Amino acid sequence: MRFDVVTLFPEMVTAAASYGVTGRAIERNIVNLSVWNPRDYTHDRHKTVDDRPYGGGPGMVMKYQPLHDAVNSAKLADSGATKVVYLSPQGKPITQALLSEACEVSQLILIAGRYEGIDERFVELDCDDEWSIGDYVISGGELAALVVIDAVTRLLPGVLGDEGSAQQDSHSDGLLDCPHFTRPEQIEGRSVPGVLLGGNHADIERWRMKQALGRTWQRRPDLLKKKNLSVEQENLLKEFIVELV
Prior knowledge:
Layout: E1 2-6, H1 10-17, H2 20-27, E2 32-36, E3 50-51, E4 61-62, H3 64-75, E5 82-93, H4 96-102, E6 107-112, E7 117-118, H5 120-126, E8 129-132, H6 142-153, E9 186-187, E10 190-191, H7 201-219, H8 221-226, H9 231-244
Parallel strand pairs: 1-2, 1-6, 4-7, 5-6, 5-8
Antiparallel strand pairs: 3-4, 9-10
Helix pairs in contact: 1-6, 3-5, 7-9
Protein name: tRNA (guanine-N(1)-)-methyltransferase
Function: Specifically methylates guanosine-37 in various tRNAs.
Subcellular location: Cytoplasm
């Protein structure tokens, strides 16, 4: 899969993406990452990429033409299915399902905005979608682009050492993940749950599902409202609540 990031700070993206899971995926040619600086597509000696907003107001707005030309150059680098996404606080919230759908294209072009925003006509004419990493504002879209790149990359076949790891993550099935433990068995008087030490895989899976349901109920009840629980899951959640009380 190919990622292309349109950004005024290309080194920021390439440097951060060179570490961890994403960095290894790039080294193994599972993913390809390229960056495109809108300043390279300007036609004045100052390489101007922004201007004052019509109607007045604070801040500057990124101009249409440099962004448009940068996206067109990025599209020429891949002949497969392409999706152009503008990363913005006004976009739809990113979910695991949204990221899974993104894996189906061969090229994902991510627009990292800066300043007060970008010309709305670019969003309307050049972008396929608008995504947000949360209900807050950061200084630019580069960090959001890196979040998307990392989250999508780890869903691709061959990226993680254990193919089942991504399937067990929080939100992969609409629930938060269950608690995890490793050695030693005792820390400050707190023990690893006995079921995890018994070796009965059926009991372990049942415990993990109950904990995932319970943790979601405690921390993100909104997620449970969106999920159709099976009879078994409903019973496990009831058990969790009773045991908690």
